[in-house]
Design goal:
disordered C terminus, Rossmann fold, 8 strands, alpha/beta, eight-stranded mixed sheet, 434 Repressor (Amino-terminal Domain), single chain
Length: 447
């Protein structure tokens, strides 16, 4: 997401490079390019113009320090305005109540049901909540089946009623069940709409009136651009929802919805979602997104993702192994699995400043580790724990078993030894397991 916008904005700032000061002329030239970049990203003309007017006002009012180049000052101003446009700061979901009730709305195909599963996973595993999900889309049998699969997969309970085709009474029954059985949160999935039709809007309004949710969320497919913004406005006019969820951010989207929706409906974006895995739901942080749009990376989010996978006790055990030179291929294989749980490798790497652009045209995903995993899995337990015994005949057997070549096996063995030295140095300096894992990832992907 935002790849084209990132490139366009970078080109816009080049106008100011080499300039000794910010002037009305060079600011006008820069803003002309920025406005075009926003319009190409599917931001409405009205919002793009208002944004550029705000940047111009701040830029012309700045006393630029001698130590700061005009282009750097403009980047800072644009960054702050982008963050403000998207909401300035993260907005928490309200799940307070007995139980807290989250009503999920949106058009058909927006990723609404999948989001219910992802939110359940997040609340259960990161917030420690006992979650119940109500399968309120009674018109699409596949929606109920999909929700059953998702809830079983993540270990949360689902509420359904055979033969009950009244979404309002179903939601009320689910709420009574949640109260009687000590659930902390009730998430209500609702029927998706093919368009904003009056009958379906009346229905979801009735559900909201009946269960009085603590949080009403509107799920929107970010790939629909300005259409998503208009749909959000129509829903908000009727439901007065509390926040927006942007899905499918891993698709070919230009980012217009993320940049426009807050300004139009005056409601915060609360979550962003990408992919089908239940772990791929993130709290929306406007400042971090602004960082990424301007090519500054998002190290804070990267560290948070690492911390979710690596605990302190395991880090200490690994550190001891490294210091005693006992780090094995078994340990390394475990490291790879932990890194993969953090998300898509290319997305993770793009959170590092300056790396995103470098990887723009690089074909790189979690399947990139398959060759390494196959080689390690073709080793015997003894070979994994003591690589020094892997002689010529063993290398040939490992290569044949993994569908690779002896050259690839030799390369992996050498890289493993080089990585062990780096990781041992980091461990001796108090490095955390997450940093060790990221360094290992960079070594093996940088060949």
């Amino acid at each position: 997401m935002f790849e084209n916008l990132i490139d366009r904005l970078e080109n816009s700032f080049k106008i100011l490079k080499g300039e000794g000061k910010i002037t009305e002329i060079n600011v006008a030239e820069t803003l002309k390019d920025i406005r075009k970049a926003l319009l190409d990203a599917d931001v409405s003309y009205k919002i793009a113009k208002k944004f550029c007017d705000g940047v111009k006002e701040k830029a012309m009012g700045q006393n630029v320090l001698k130590s700061v180049k005009p282009s750097q000052m403009m980047v800072k101003i644009v960054h702050d305005e982008l963050a403000a446009l998207m909401g300035s700061q993260a907005s928490e979901i309200n799940i307070n109540g007995n139980p807290g009730v989250v009503l999920v709305s949106g058009l058909q195909g927006s990723g609404k049901t999948t989001f219910c599963g992802k939110l359940s996973y997040l609340l259960k595993n990161k917030k420690g909540k006992k979650v119940l999900v109500c399968a309120g889309d009674v018109y699409r049998p596949a929606a109920i089946d999909q929700l059953k699969v998702l809830t079983q997969q993540i270990g949360v309970d689902i509420y359904t009623e055979e033969g009950n085709m009244n979404p309002v009474s179903l939601a009320k029954s689910a709420l009574s069940h949640a109260k009687a059985n000590g659930y902390n949160v009730l998430i209500i999935d609702t029927a998706g709409r093919l368009a904003v039709d009056q009958e379906m809007m009346d229905e979801i309004s009735a559900i909201k009136d009946a269960v009085k949710p603590t949080e009403t969320l509107f799920v929107v497919d970010s790939m629909t651009g300005q259409d998503a913004v208009e749909t959000a406005k129509a829903f908000n006019d009727r439901l007065n929802f509390d926040g927006v969820v942007l899905t499918k951010l891993d698709g070919d989207t230009r980012g217009g919805a993320a940049l426009s929706i807050k300004a139009i409906v005056e409601k915060p974006i609360k979550f962003v979602s990408s992919g089908e895995k239940m772990e791929t739901l993130d709290i929306f942080h406007p400042e971090r997104i602004a960082d990424r749009i301007l090519g500054m990376g998002d190290v804070v989010s990267l560290v948070e993702k690492a911390q979710e996978q690596f605990n302190e006790e395991e880090a200490k055990k690994l550190q001891k192994k490294l210091l005693k030179d006992q780090f094995t291929f078994t340990d390394f294989y475990d490291q790879i699995q932990q890194i993969k749980k953090m998300g898509n490798i290319k997305d993770l790497a793009s959170m590092l400043p300056g790396v995103g652009k470098a990887l723009k045209d690089v074909d790189m995903d979690n399947s990139s580790f398959k060759g390494i995993e196959a080689i390690i899995q073709s080793m015997t337990p003894e070979e994994r724990n003591n690589p020094s015994i892997i002689n010529g005949s063993r290398r040939k057997r490992i290569a044949d078993g993994s569908g690779s070549t002896i050259v690839e096996v030799n390369r992996l063995l050498k890289q493993f030894e080089d990585t062990k030295k780096i990781m041992k140095t980091m461990a001796g300096g108090g490095g955390k397991r997450a940093m060790n894992a990221m360094q290992a990832m960079r070594n093996f992907r940088g060949k």
